[in-house]
Amino acid sequence: MNSMIEDLLNPAYLPDPTKNVSLVQTHISMVFVADDFVYKVKKPMDFGFLDFSSLEKRHHFCHQEVILNKRLSEGIYLGVMPIVYDGDHYSIGEGGGDVVDYAVKMKRIPDERLMKSIYNRGELTADHLRDIAQVLAGFHRDAQQSPEIDHFGELDVFRFTTDENFEQTKKYIGTSIDREDFDTLSQWTDHFFEKNKDLFRQRIADRKIRDCHGDLHMEHICLDTPISIIDCIEFSDRLRYTDTFADIGFLLMDLEYQGGTEFSNQLWRFYAEQTGDIGMESLLTFFKVYRAYVRGKVISFQLDDQGIGDDDKAKAVQSAKAYFKLARSYID
């Protein structure tokens, strides 16, 4: 019996004509990349903050992914398609057989137009950064806001998330994170919370807790006209209902991880001019630390994925280490 991956890498079992199919894996998804479209399948994982363990849950979150991402990427997310098994082969689309999973169908974005690709070619400009800042400031201004969403900006609620991060990375001490960095970052985070209780309350009062993107880094921004931003967090309201600084801080951190500190500073200035968030650098640093740590955590999760080979796991260790070191560098 063929595996689902083996079949879906065969153009014959995809719903749209294509000559080529490749597979990109993350800790939570299998992404089948065809010539014109992309088919994203959620892995049956349960990390606590994310639960794709049942077919029903994966179906629900596929639809959530389409709905939520249309906020910033109209025309990219095309719908949810069943994956069926006829006893011999797996295929995507309506047809004979049992529905065994679901895939989000997306229009394929040209890799060369991604912000990260443009940056790597040395072609990122101040105009790009100004346009991105304008899109994000407008999105954050108009994003849903409510007393329910405000709740997730409360210090004790957000602290649950950072405590979860440290708890889930204990197993990687000595592998992708040093014991000293782990202890220093966890203690610094506790200290920041204790010193800044009023700041968290003020951000709620200023209506800065919104239904945000949640996973805002350079590989998710397509610098076409108009700008499209993809792959928001669909699997957890808790991780998406957050301070707008958690969004912009992620993108600034990602630029700095790639060596683009000057671009990060420039993007921050453009964004702050749009939003009026002047003089908030200490809180911005907190969210950069938080985002770099989360990035190191989720990359470390790949070490537990039996479907990922040893070479890719070795790369994951090095990448996760670099993110954890970046988090530490913000507080030294």
Topology (SSEs and partners):
Layout: H1 4-8, E1 21-25, E2 29-34, E3 37-42, H2 55-69, E4 77-85, E5 90-92, E6 98-107, H3 115-120, H4 126-142, H5 147-151, H6 155-169, H7 179-195, H8 197-205, E7 209-211, E8 221-222, E9 228-229, H9 237-240, E10 241-243, H10 244-257, H11 261-275, H12 281-300, H13 310-329
Antiparallel strand pairs: 1-2, 2-3, 3-6, 4-5, 4-6, 7-10, 8-9
Helix pairs in contact: 4-11, 6-7, 6-12, 7-13, 10-11, 10-12, 12-13
The helix content is 40-55%
Given the structure, what is the number of helices? 13
- First and last CA, distance: 54 Å
- Remind me, CATH topology of the largest domain? Aminoglycoside 3'-phosphotransferase, Chain: A, domain 2
**SS class:** alpha+beta
The percentage of residues in β strands lies in: 5-15%
How many domains make up the 3D coordinates?
2
Strands of the widest sheet, in order across it, are 1-2-3-6-4-5
Oligomer: single chain
Task: Specify the CATH class of the largest domain.
Answer: Alpha Beta
Element pattern in H and E: HEEEHEEEHHHHHHEEEHEHHHH
Query: Largest sheet, described in full?
Result: 6 strands, antiparallel
Low-confidence stretches are none
CATH architectural arrangement of the largest domain: Alpha-Beta Complex
Categorize the overall geometry. Answer: globular
Radius of gyration: 20 Å
What is the β-strand count? 10
Q: Residue-averaged pLDDT, rounded?
A: 95
